Amino acid sequence: MNIFKENWFKLSLIALAVVFLGFLFYWFLIRPGMIRSACVDTPTFVPGSIAAKYTQPGKTESFDPVAFAANYTQTPTRPGYRKATESEYEYCLRKHGL
User: What confidence tens digit (pLDDT) does each residue in 76-93 have?
Assistant: First the structure.
């Protein structure tokens, strides 16, 4: 118990350094990897706001979600997702802060 009383400052600096190094490891290695893996695939469904844009009264354009989804090949590992295009991937990375 005397070790803690005598070296409390050194032990607190060591603990702070361990927490700081853990944060750096997460921020620069784990977080970017998770974001990149999440951005590789894009959902094939169309958000309601986009579908509503094409189905507003008075519009001559019609939106067919089945035809829209048929234009994209789904990834075998994540049903309902497709490979993102280069611009979608870049946008996703920027949106998540990379």
Answer: 566 667 788 888 888 888
**What φ, ψ does residue 46 adopt, rounded to 5°?**
-105, 125
Extents of the domains making up the chain: 2-95
Which are the contacts of 78, defined by CB distance < 8 A and separation ≥ 6?
41
Which single residue is written with the structure tokens 């620069």?
A: 28
Cα separation of 65 and 47, whole Å? Answer: 10
| Closest alpha carbon to 82 in 42, 36, 39 | 42
C-alpha distances in angstroms, 68 versus 19, 41, 50, 76, 84? Answer: 48, 17, 12, 19, 15
CA–CA gap between residue 83 and residue 74 (Å, rounded):
7
